[in-house]
């Protein structure tokens, strides 16, 4: 029995290493033990599929978008609370002021292919941080004691950047074509506009930016849900 096992060990060792087997039977088992992991590593590496990694990336990004959707709703509520009347009053409908470089998701957004939707999501998320920074600076002048609101606005800008980068990574993992360099956002123009505008228009513009942040984060969550395991087909 021992000699048969040694013979089988020599054959396995020879195929894996491409070298002659050890001469002495006493050295045969240690050499086979050391050679085994070396001959198995390349095969194990080649069998790794990128699919679980992609699914994990999508799932993590979707979870982040879901969490930020909740935070965006809290930010919008906090913003309204600090603007005074008529903000927050029943029936108050502020004008939907245009925002440079950013608009709400188009009505046909949900009908686009998922990669194209994610490209639009990522572009909107890239435009939001400087706009949120402008709103935070203006609110620091109008509501300097609203520290939690100012902190939420600062966090929102950072979180939008993080979510945008995660969506971009998902697009790259999917093999989707990436866009070229984007022009610098027109946050400076918005900052100048809010600085010269009256208090009420500045508040309305800030409300609009916070609303767009919520819309795009929520839209991103829904679009990633199309790719997440267990999501709609």
Automatic annotation (TrEMBL):
Taxonomic superkingdom: Eukaryota
SUPFAM superfamilies xrefs: 4-helical cytokines (SSF47266)
Main location, first listed in the record: secreted
Localization (cell): Secreted
GO cellular component: extracellular space
Keyword Secreted: yes
GO molecular function, one term: cytokine activity
Gene3D superfamilies per UniProt: 1.20.1250.10
UniProt keyword annotations, A-Z: Cytokine, Secreted
InterPro entries in alphabetical order: 4_helix_cytokine-like_core (IPR009079), PRF/CT (IPR010681)
GO process annotations (BP): cell surface receptor signaling pathway; nervous system development
Region annotation Disordered: where it falls in the sequence: 1-53
Keyword Secreted included in the entry's annotation: yes
Protein family: Belongs to the IL-6 superfamily.
Job of this protein: Induces cardiac myocyte hypertrophy in vitro. Binds to and activates the ILST/gp130 receptor.
Record's protein name: Cardiotrophin-1
Gene (name only): CTF1
């Amino acid at each position: 029995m021992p000699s048969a096992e040694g013979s089988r060990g020599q054959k396995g060792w020879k195929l894996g290493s491409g070298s002659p087997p050890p001469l002495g039977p006493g050295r045969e088992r240690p050499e086979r033990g050391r050679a085994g992991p070396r001959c198995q590593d390349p095969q194990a590496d080649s069998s790794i599929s990128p699919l679980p990694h992609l699914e994990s990336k999508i799932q993590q990004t979707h979870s982040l978008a879901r969490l930020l959707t909740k935070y965006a709703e809290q930010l919008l509520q906090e913003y309204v609370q600090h603007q005074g009347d008529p903000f927050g009053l029943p029936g108050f409908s502020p004008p939907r002021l245009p925002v440079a470089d950013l608009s709400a998701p188009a009505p046909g957004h949900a009908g686009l292919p998922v990669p194209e939707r994610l490209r639009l999501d990522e572009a909107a998320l890239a435009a939001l941080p400087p706009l949120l920074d402008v709103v935070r600076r203006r609110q620091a002048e109008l509501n300097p004691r609203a520290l939690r609101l100012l902190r939420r606005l600062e966090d929102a800008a950072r979180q939008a950047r993080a979510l945008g980068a995660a969506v971009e990574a998902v697009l790259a993992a999917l093999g989707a074509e990436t866009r070229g360099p984007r022009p610098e956002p027109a946050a400076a123009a918005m900052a100048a506009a809010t600085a010269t505008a009256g208090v009420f228009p500045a508040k309305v513009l800030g409300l609009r930016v916070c609303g767009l942040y919520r819309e795009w984060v929520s839209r991103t969550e829904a679009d990633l849900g199309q790719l997440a395991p267990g999501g709609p087909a």
